[in-house]
């Protein structure tokens, strides 16, 4: 039974741990944060990713945590309604597609892996390949060796930096930044996504069904210089400057930013790499092929990538290098199609001029009355649907591992 270290307890990391355990491997998950990260935005699960959730037996749990969003409402500087849009169409969803808060999905996956060792509050310091093993030094814990190490640690992956070189060699910025954080409930409207478009900038705020707080989203052009992604004070100053002078609820939202425990700001970037593995070190999810939030497919890529990687490793017992290569061959075309969605979507998310905003809101108001409305809607959803289903999953990998006993593995902090 191979020992596999996974860096990152997010969606891709926990999903990979689940599938590896079902394939008879012994995964360990190390996470820099002291516990599961609860922040983040709404995420979509569609196409092949929904099939992965089905094969995990988690569909009903995901459904119970549905965001309950009903409507997107576009408003002007005074809060007056400009146009409305069905929430499903606004998110590019159709049929059985699911929408869930990222934190809720992370908790569902972590709970489902109660037979896996999680080590919180630690991270990888060095990786040293030694023949058929990888020796790992941690920031806090004891040095250990593993048969395979997988980075599922996001856009700013430590494993990618240690094994593949500087981050700058693999990140492809899309020219915009995104900020997300929680704000008081009264600043949002339950089940409604309030969107305020301004030239070159977009603000959105919403409250999911039953939520105690609302969430806010800011999109804006990337600055020439930006603080380090760990410098929260510098990032907040940058955001305040970027949206200074904007009306609507923006001043109140920026005031609430100071007290937000889950403040997040980063570039809208993709990860583009010539290869996702070197020896017995590999990458999955955003660490390998982040499509950026503009694609709407980051979570789905993480879920599918975790499934395909576990299946490929199981098909090459004792040869993780061959398994990593097979995983990459299967995933490359799927990743490429999904990454292509980002730039197309981004053009509609941040409009450059007042004239573009007027045209967009006019089209939204007219859409219910236009002939060929269904055809227009299909033009919106078809590229997403095509990308989301552009992979055939290998056969079900749902066998319970020998000796499974929930809750018996230590979770150290």
TrEMBL record:
FAD-binding domain sequence ranges: 3-336
Region called Disordered, residue ranges: 393-413
GO molecular-function terms, A-Z: FAD binding
Protein origin, superkingdom: Bacteria
Protein name: FAD-dependent oxidoreductase
């Amino acid at each position: 039974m191979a020992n596999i270290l996974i860096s990152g307890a997010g969606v891709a990391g926990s999903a990979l741990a689940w599938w590896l355990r079902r394939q008879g491997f012994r995964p360990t998950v190390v996470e820099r944060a002291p516990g599961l990260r609860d922040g983040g935005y709404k995420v979509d699960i569609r196409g092949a990713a929904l099939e992965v959730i089905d094969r995990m037996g988690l569909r009903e749990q995901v459904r119970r945590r549905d965001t309950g969003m009903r409507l997107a409402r576009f408003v002007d500087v005074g809060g007056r309604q400009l146009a409305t849009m069905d929430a499903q169409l606004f998110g590019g969803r159709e049929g059985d597609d699911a929408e869930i808060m990222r934190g809720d999905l992370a908790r569902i996956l972590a709970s489902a892996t109660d037979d896996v060792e999680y080590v919180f509050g630690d991270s990888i310091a060095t990786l040293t390949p030694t023949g058929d093993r990888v020796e790992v030094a941690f920031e806090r814990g004891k040095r250990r060796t593993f048969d395979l190490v997988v980075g599922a640690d996001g856009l700013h992956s430590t494993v990618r930096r240690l094994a593949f070189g500087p981050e700058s060699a693999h990140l492809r910025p899309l020219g915009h930044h995104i900020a997300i954080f929680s704000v008081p409930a009264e600043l949002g409207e339950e089940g409604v996504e309030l969107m305020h478009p301004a030239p070159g900038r977009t603000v959105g705020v919403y409250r999911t069904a039953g939520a105690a707080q609302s969430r806010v989203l800011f999109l804006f052009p990337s600055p020439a210089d930006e603080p380090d992604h760990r410098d929260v004070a510098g990032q907040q100053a940058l955001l305040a400057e970027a949206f200074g002078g904007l009306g609507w609820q923006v001043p109140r939202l920026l005031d609430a930013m100071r007290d937000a425990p889950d403040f997040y700001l980063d570039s809208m970037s993709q990860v583009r790499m010539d290869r996702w593995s070197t020896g017995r070190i590999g990458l999955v999810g955003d660490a390998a092929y982040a499509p950026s939030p503009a694609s709407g497919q980051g979570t789905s890529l993480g879920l599918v990538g975790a499934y395909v990687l576990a299946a490929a490793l199981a098909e090459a017992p004792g040869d993780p290098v061959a398994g990593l290569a097979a995983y990459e061959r299967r995933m490359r075309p799927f990743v490429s199609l999904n990454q292509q969605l980002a730039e197309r979507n981004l053009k509609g998310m941040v409009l450059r001029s007042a004239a573009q905003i007027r045209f967009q809101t006019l089209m939204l108001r007219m859409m219910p009355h236009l002939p060929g409305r269904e055809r227009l809607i299909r033009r919106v959803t078809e590229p997403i649907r095509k990308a989301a289903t552009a992979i055939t999953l290998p056969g079900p990998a749902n066998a319970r591992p020998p000796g499974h006993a929930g809750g018996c593995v230590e979770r150290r902090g």
